[in-house]
Design a protein that fits this description.
Largest sheet: 5 strands, mixed
Number of strands: 17
CATH class of the largest domain: Alpha Beta
Order of helices and strands: HHEEEEEEEEHEEHHHHHHHEHEEHEEHEE
Structural class: alpha+beta
CATH superfamily of the largest domain: Histidine kinase-like ATPase, C-terminal domain
Radius of gyration: 35 Å
Number of domains: 3
Strand content: 15-25%
Distance between the termini: 62 Å
Helix content: 40-55%
CATH architecture of the largest domain: 2-Layer Sandwich
């Protein structure tokens, strides 16, 4: 593209169509014209921001690797007519928007990280032959200072992008919370659900054995065995493998001594049920030697059935407990603004993150009573999720998670600490900034802590602070007791 052609393209561009000829000449002189091949990377996620990019021809794909998957964030399509939509896209333009964003936003990119002195937060790749003109930071700042016509186009787009980024981050955090909820739910429900299925199948077989047991019609003997069954604490497991092995040996000897077949198998079943030789002695005295074999068969089957029913009931209670934790975490069927039970919300968050906590020691320090806090439980649970999840990531499966809550005059303080690597000292003042992250490229959006800070400070009138050194990182949340508009805490 020749110099006059570049001038003409800039003159028709949405960003520069109000600048004068002298300014256009300066823009051509200070800019660096680049032609990108299809698939060529213009800038990469995590690279320091060095240029403001104006799209002249073609298309740029903005994408990012998130949790191991590449996601398309947006596309910038050049508008040959006036820096706007190509004729093929003209039918999609409505209310000065294309593909859901302001038309002018298609014409340039890179201004946000360049203004903030940050790194790019996504990859920009050419889709087909693409031409751009780029400006370094000094030239970009000069444009902003000397060309107010440009600011009238650029600043509304910049504001829209900031709002859109935060909305996208909230949506992604919601999806991540749902994913965490689903993973935690599946992990927690797996064991009790499997226990119900397994024990139900075994219970069916056991009841069939009961029905097939040869049992005399003597009502007195049946009543005596029924009384004996009621006196046996079925389902109590012996505390250790050595104790169980000794009990099984003693039971096998008793059964063999009384001439009962399959002594080893029966001994194992009775040992599982915590039935010892002394209990069998009482049963033998009640029924006599002629009825001992069917009585032992019947009693073993019935005690097994009792034990299975109890285990199924325990599993059902565990499922109910998990559902209560999910309800507490998600705050279903509740008004948005209400009294908040902080401890209940934190514990519900722990339950949802349990699948990630193997190897982590959890220490809770909660007072017996806390003053009433008025706020948004669902949003606060999002804060606990972000802070606890970050702590778990920092400890990499080995460490100590400390959760403390205490009242402080008109405030309630929540402290979440971990023994991970810590936040570098030079990053601690910036950790709540949007798009700033200490995680590896593709591992985080840099918005989780920013949104948590906004929830605590703007939605609840509190503060969120961090102190960190290797082995001791603490995020401290201070929330007003009365209402979210209580103002900043006293020093």
């Amino acid at each position: 593209m020749s110099g006059p052609a570049v001038v003409e393209r800039l003159r028709r561009h949405e960003l520069f169509n109000q600048v004068d000829e002298e300014q256009l000449s300066w823009l051509v002189e200070r800019g660096q014209l680049r032609t990108l091949a299809p698939g060529e990377l213009l800038f990469g996620d995590g690279q320091p921001a060095t240029m403001f990019v104006v799209l002249l021809e073609g298309e740029l794909l903005i994408s990012k690797v998130i949790d191991g998957r590449r996601e398309v964030l947006t596309r910038h399509v050049a508008r040959p007519d006036r820096g706007g939509a190509a004729p093929a896209e003209a039918g999609r333009v409505a209310d000065n928007r294309l593909d859901g964003k302001p038309v002018a936003a298609h014409g340039f990119t890179g201004e946000m990280p360049l203004l903030a002195g940050e790194s790019y937060v996504a990859d920009a790749t050419a889709v087909g032959p693409t031409t751009v003109i780029t400006y370094d930071q000094e030239a970009f700042l000069t444009i902003l200072a000397r060309m107010p016509q440009v600011n009238r186009v650029l600043l509304p787009v910049l504001a829209w992008r900031i709002q859109s980024s935060e909305a996208l981050a909230r949506q992604r955090n919601t999806l991540q919370a749902l994913g965490t909820l689903a993973a935690g739910l599946a992990h927690e429900l797996n064991n009790p659900a499997a226990a119900v299925v397994r024990n139900s199948r075994t219970l069916r077989q056991t009841l069939r054995r009961v029905a097939e047991t040869e049992w005399p019609a003597d009502a007195g003997v049946a009543a005596a065995v029924g009384g004996w069954l009621a006196s046996v604490p079925a389902g109590v497991r012996l505390p250790g493998s050595l104790d169980r092995e000794a009990a099984e040996d003693a039971l096998a000897a008793w059964l063999a001594e009384h001439g009962l077949p399959s002594a080893a198998r029966r001994a194992g079943e009775l040992a599982d049920l915590a039935v010892g030789p002394e209990a069998l002695d009482r049963l033998a005295d009640l029924v006599g030697p002629d009825q001992l074999r069917p009585a032992v068969d019947y009693a073993t089957s019935m005690l097994t059935a009792y034990s299975l029913v109890q285990e199924i009931a325990d599993a059902g209670e565990r499922v109910a407990s998990i559902i209560r934790s999910v309800r507490d975490y998600a705050n279903l069927d509740r008004a948005p603004l209400q009294d908040v039970d902080l401890v209940r919300g934190i514990d519900a968050t722990l339950a949802m993150l349990k699948a990630k906590m193997d190897g982590i020691r959890v220490i809770r320090d909660y007072p017996p009573q806390l003053p009433v806090l008025h706020g948004y439980p669902g949003e606060l649970n999002q804060v606990w999720t972000n802070l606890i999840d970050n702590a778990l990531d920092a400890m990499r499966g080995d460490g100590e998670l400390r959760l403390s809550v205490w009242p402080d005059r008109d405030w309630v303080v929540v402290e979440i600490g971990d023994t991970g690597a810590g936040v570098p000292a030079q990053d601690q003042d910036r950790i709540f900034e949007p798009f700033f992250t200490t995680k590896d490229v593709g591992k985080g959006t840099g918005l989780g802590l920013h949104l948590s800070h906004r929830i605590v400070t703007q939605r609840h009138g509190g503060t969120l602070q961090v102190t960190s050194r290797p082995g001791d990182t603490r995020f401290t949340v201070r929330l007003p007791v009365a209402r979210q508009d209580a103002g900043p805490p006293r020093p």
